[in-house]
Structures are given as C-alpha cells and as structure tokens.
Amino acid sequence: MTKYGYIRISTREQNEDRQRLAMDQLDIPPRNIFADKQSGKDFDRPQYQRLVRKLRRDDLLYLHSIDRLGRNYREILDQWRLLTKEKGVDIVVLDMPLLDTRRGKDLMGTFLSDIVLQVLSFVAENERANIRQRQAEGIAAAKARGVRFGRPPRPLPENFHSLHRAWRAKTMTLRQAAGACGLPVATFYSKARKLEQR
User: Fold this and answer.
1) Domain boundaries, the chain
2) Phi first, then psi: what are they for 92, rounded to 5°?
C-alpha cells in the first residue's frame, strides 16, 4: 500500500497550506502529494490525471474534503467509482470520517458510504450553482447602478474627427481613414457610428 494525497485550490490566489499541512501530518511522501490550482468543475486537471495513472490496487488516497476532489455531482460519483471499484484504491476524506473506504467493507458500510458521498456531492454541486447565481445577480445589480465592466474605452485619436469627415465626404475610403487613425476598420466604423448617433 502506498499513500497519496490530492490537493486542489480553485485559483492561484488561494492558499493550499491548510490542505498541505493535513497531508504532512499523515506522513505522505512529498513526491506522492499532487496539487492542482484549477477549478473543480471537471476532472481535466493535469496533476489529478497524473495521480490517477500512478494509483494501484490497495493504494490509499487522502483528500482534505470531498469538494477538493471536484464540484460536479455526477463526475464526483463517477470518479469515486473509478478509483474504488475499478482501480481498487481506498479513499479517506479527512473532514468526513464516514467517507473512509477502509472501514465497513461489508454491504452496510458500502451503502452508508455511498449515501454520504451522494449527499455531499449534491451539496458541493449545489453550492457551485449558488455561487454562479450570486455572481450573475451581483453583475446585474452593478450594471443597473451604471458600473461598466471590461477595459475602459480608448480615447479617440486626435485626428479622428477630420478623418471621419474626409471618409463621409468620400475623399478617402473607410480603410484609408481607419489606417490613418491607427484603428482597425471595424473599430473606426463603430466609433464613427456612435459619434453620428450622438
């Protein structure tokens, strides 16, 4: 049996120290701890994929919490089955003692573990959906208050107005006017239309 640990944080700004400290206390060799700095929306994560390739029957995988494995309800269940049933790996979720596949290998233990896993997976995915909903509501509220998102618009080049007049007077083509302004044709045209509408 070889011990492994898996750590995941969603962004590079987050800190993995809490998870790493928990793994260090379990005497997992540092080379057997795999960490991804990536969203848990799917399992297309490089370090997780490397870990799965290394795992062998009767190995032991530690996770700090089930949401570190992932946040997609169906995919968490699929991965759990892949690891425990197909690969024959034991999994221990540190903050949820009921999710320890070493215990209760009988039918009742497996049944309880499956129920807890399904509930927690559902909660993890539901929280992800709630976060997306709160973000959408926050963005809509900010837009209603007049907050603008994205890069601020670039100011018009100093020669824009004279080139705009020349283009409308047909003394130069759209492409020539845009090039003289140093703007892409589509940007020049868009700014010209906005100017005319004002």
Assistant:
1) 3-131, 160-197
2) -125, 125
Return the pLDDT at 180. 92
CATH fold label, 3-131: Rossmann fold (3.40.50)
**Environment class of residue 124 by beta-carbon count within 10 Å: exposed (0-12), middle (13-18) or buried (19+)?**
buried
Q: Which tens digits make up the pLDDT trace of 49-83?
A: 999 999 999 999 999 988 888 777 778 888 888 89
How far apart are alpha carbons 103 and 87 in whole angstroms?
A: 18
> What residues act catalytically?
10
Q: Give the type of residue at 84.
A: T
C-alpha 191/C-alpha 101 separation (Å) is 63
User: Alpha-carbon distance 48 to 35, whole Å?
Assistant: 7
3-state secondary structure of 51: helix
In which residue are the tokens 């699929």 written?
Answer: 78
Amino acid at 55: L
Q: What DSSP letter does each residue of 57-71 carry, written as one string?
A: TT-EEEES-HHHH-S
pTM (2 d.p.): 0.60
∠ CA(155), CA(157), CA(160), 5° rounding?
A: 120
